[in-house]
Design brief:
The protein is mostly beta strands. It contains five helices and 21 strands. The chain has an eleven-stranded antiparallel β-sheet with strand order 15-14-13-12-11-21-20-19-18-17-16. Strand 11 and strand 12 form a beta hairpin. Helix 1 runs antiparallel to helix 2. The longest helix is centred in the N-terminal third of the chain and has 10 residues. The chain is globular. The two termini are 30 Å apart.
């Protein structure tokens, strides 16, 4: 992996001391050079320091590579398990450009190794301490730069351009945690665009388009319009029939849910049904997986604050949880 550090004006500056950490270990590098990093299903945390410059911070999202997909398609279940356990099934962007004074999120999706990945701005940073250099890649640990608390920023305030929704995606089977950032890039009278158009919502929170499934099953299996309906309330029920999915939704009640220091009212929605997996490479019929989803939807925020999904099939099961941690105000 090649690491470059840039000033806020885009000028490359070499010689920063960089630490790259994931759950497999830690590597050191000098910006402008390359480092060997062990692959992992967990995300990679990068921290670069140079005298006279604020910290340059990055989080690289781990993505399954083509080898894992090939193992699954040809029926190589054992190979897939070994790859996932060892980390060989996953990879990161191979060329990252960090910016002094910023934290950025780097995602390999759509990257073809022809050039650098500039990442998505998350927040401004300050000078790092020695203790922060040893901090592991774990979304449950406070970030390098202190961000506004949910209470201070006003969680119910309308989103503005530059604000970001910070979630954590948890693989309940392995315990791996990954940060998921939805940054609001553009707001019109009718729509909001996140992550450079990767996710588009109506002002009322209904989903218009998902181009890049950053949130795992939350995005890949999203019904048209999203996981909740406008004016949803206890007692409502409906069916969702869309490509590869057949689900029945039931609103089971209301409660409160804590985000940071603030409680918000949520409506609980349960989904149950089936997900049809992709057709096998040998032309066999699609295999169905039983699917159960629990959604906590906050009407005041017009969005899901917690999402728990479980799928069961002959080949195995998956369990994921996506949880809103805070709203980062620009």
């Amino acid at each position: 992996m090649k690491i470059e550090t840039l000033t806020s004006t885009g000028k490359a500056v070499e010689g920063a001391q960089c630490q790259l950490s994931n759950d497999k270990g830690t590597a050191m590098a000098v910006s402008g050079q390359s480092a060997l990093v062990r692959r992992s299903g967990g995300d990679l945390s990068v921290l670069c320091e140079l005298a006279g410059q604020p910290s340059a911070v990055g989080q690289a999202v781990s993505r399954a590579n083509a080898g894992l997909a090939g193992n699954i398609l040809i029926g190589g279940g054992i190979g897939a398990v070994i790859d996932a356990t060892s980390g060989a099934a996953y990879t990161y962007p191979t060329w990252m450009q960090l910016v002094f004074g910023e934290e950025r999120l780097f995602d390999r999706s759509g990257h073809r190794d022809e050039g650098p990945v500039s990442g998505t701005f998350v927040r401004a940073t300050g000078p790092a301490t020695t203790a922060e250099l040893a901090r592991p890649s774990d979304p449950s640990v406070p970030p390098v730069a202190a961000a506004p608390s949910v209470a201070a920023s006003g969680i119910r305030a309308p989103l503005r351009r530059g604000d970001a929704l910070e979630y954590v995606l948890i693989d309940q089977m392995t315990g791996n945690k990954s940060p998921v950032i939805y940054r609001l890039d553009q707001v019109t009278a009718n729509e909001m665009s996140f992550n450079q158009g990767a996710r588009v919502e109506r002002i009322d929170g209904q989903v218009v388009l998902i181009r890049s499934p950053a949130g795992g099953i939350f995005d890949t299996s999203s019904p048209p319009g999203g996981w909740a309906r406008v004016n949803v309330r206890p007692g409502m029920a409906w069916s969702e029939e869309y490509p590869r999915h057949s689900l029945r939704a039931t609103v089971t009640g209301e409660s409160s849910y804590k985000i940071g220091d603030e409680d918000v009212r949520v409506v609980k929605i349960r989904y149950a049904g089936w997900q049809n997996n992709t057709v096998m490479s040998n032309g066999a019929a699609p295999r169905s997986s039983q699917m159960e989803v629990t959604v906590l939807y906050a009407p005041d925020l017009k969005r899901v604050v917690r999402f728990d999904a479980e799928t069961k099939a002959i080949a195995g099961m998956t369990k994921e949880s996506l949880q809103l941690q805070r709203i980062l105000r620009n």
